[in-house]
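Design a sequence for this backbone.
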């Protein structure tokens, strides 16, 4: 009985998986989605991959094959000690890509809505609304995988920040820390930049509320936890 409150959440995860598998059913039969940006990426990263092959796995941090030369970390860099990459696959339940990104859309927005105290069943509907946004599906077709990954984690990160300022500091701190790592690991600077713009206005809103309610001490404590 003590696990009963978590049944709707488990049902939500199961529903996200079922809808994802139905929507991306062709992937299960061995078919692949042709993603133009991924095809172009293979050309952009060829010099890096050739170097990696001829130098026993050594990672080049620069490539001359893009523009007049540029850092390789935005194209193809392997970080052997980065365990967040393994955790990233867990969050996608090891689903084949790009289906895993769709599932992550649902999961990330579901976490945000729970942080906003939205009813679980309404949160499920909201999560599907987020995941089925036309632009987010276009990203998957185009092969903007890192952007899709970042958009999956961003709502959960925002949810963690909100909890910090809703007197659930330590749960919020844990979520914010976790999803900050996952967001940065997605390696899409544009989405992370926009995300922190949103967070700035969230903090500004909570500050105005603290000023009205004369709770600046509590607000300052939350800011300290957020900055740590």
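Sequence:
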């Amino acid at each position: 009985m003590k696990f009963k409150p978590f049944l709707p959440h488990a049902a939500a995860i199961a529903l996200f998986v079922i809808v994802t598998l139905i929507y991306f059913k062709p992937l299960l039969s061995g078919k692949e989605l042709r993603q133009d940006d991924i095809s172009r990426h293979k050309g952009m990263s060829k010099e890096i991959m050739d170097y990696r092959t001829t130098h026993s796995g050594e990672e080049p941090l620069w490539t001359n094959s893009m523009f007049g030369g540029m850092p390789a970390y935005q194209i193809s860099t392997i970080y052997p000690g980065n365990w967040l990459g393994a955790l990233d696959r867990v969050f996608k339940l090891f689903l084949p890509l790009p289906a895993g990104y769709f599932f992550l859309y649902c999961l990330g927005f579901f976490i945000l809505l729970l942080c906003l105290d939205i009813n679980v069943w309404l949160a499920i509907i909201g999560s599907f609304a987020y995941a089925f946004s036309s632009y987010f599906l276009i990203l998957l077709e185009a092969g903007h995988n890192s952007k899709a990954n970042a958009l999956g984690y961003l709502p959960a990160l925002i949810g963690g920040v909100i909890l910090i300022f809703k007197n659930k500091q330590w749960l919020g701190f844990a979520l914010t820390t976790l999803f900050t790592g996952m967001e940065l690991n997605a390696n899409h600077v544009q989405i992370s930049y926009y995300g922190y713009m949103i967070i700035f206005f969230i903090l500004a809103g909570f500050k105005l509320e603290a000023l009205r309610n004369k709770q600046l001490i509590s607000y300052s404590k939350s800011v300290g936890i957020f900055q740590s």
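Residues 189-213 form the longest helix (25 residues).
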